[in-house]
Amino acid sequence: MKFFIQSGAVLGLLGVAVGAFGAHALRAMLEASGRTATFETAVKYQFYHALALVLVGVLMHVFGSNPTLIKLLSWSGYSFLGGVIIFSGSLYVLCLTGVTWLGAITPLGGLAMIAGWALMLWAFL
């Protein structure tokens, strides 16, 4: 539970820092390469799932007496975390380096994020 809240907080903190860095220091480079929207998408999804990780941690605390629910929420949290690393991470690398083959792994991160939400839903069915 604590791990997911800490992970969410770190991703949120980094999201603010990376977003600000992109908006200011990288603005000209991102505009020149046509990657501004891609960078913004990476930051946006990082933020959404930072909040989702905090939610997972809070839900684990509230429903801590239900081992099945805790297990599903834990899988959900790990899916969110892996999804952010793969999805947002690959988009950041794409934007900063122009290495386009990384775009091929980005959907895997998106699938991990979808799995995280599906696992959260399953936990409460």
What does it look like?
This protein is mainly alpha-helical and 125 residues long. It contains 5 helices and no strands. The chain has helices spanning 2-24, 27-33, 36-62, 67-97, 106-123. The chain is elongated, with a radius of gyration of 16 Å. The mean pLDDT is 96.
Protein traits:
mainly alpha; 5 helices; 0% strand; 85% helix; 125 residues
Outline of the structure:
The chain has 125 residues and is mainly alpha-helical.
How are the secondary structure elements laid out?
Blueprint: H1 2-24, H2 27-33, H3 36-62, H4 67-97, H5 106-123
Order of helices and strands: HHHHH
Q: Strand count, sense and closure of the main sheet?
A: none
- Our count of helices gives 5
Instruction: Output the structural class.
Output: mainly alpha
Q: Estimate the strand proportion.
A: under 5%
Mean pLDDT: 96
Q: Using only CA atoms, what is the Rg?
A: 16 Å
Quick one: overall form?
elongated
* First-last Cα distance: 20 Å
Secondary structure: number of strands? 0
Oligomer: single chain
Helix content: over 70%
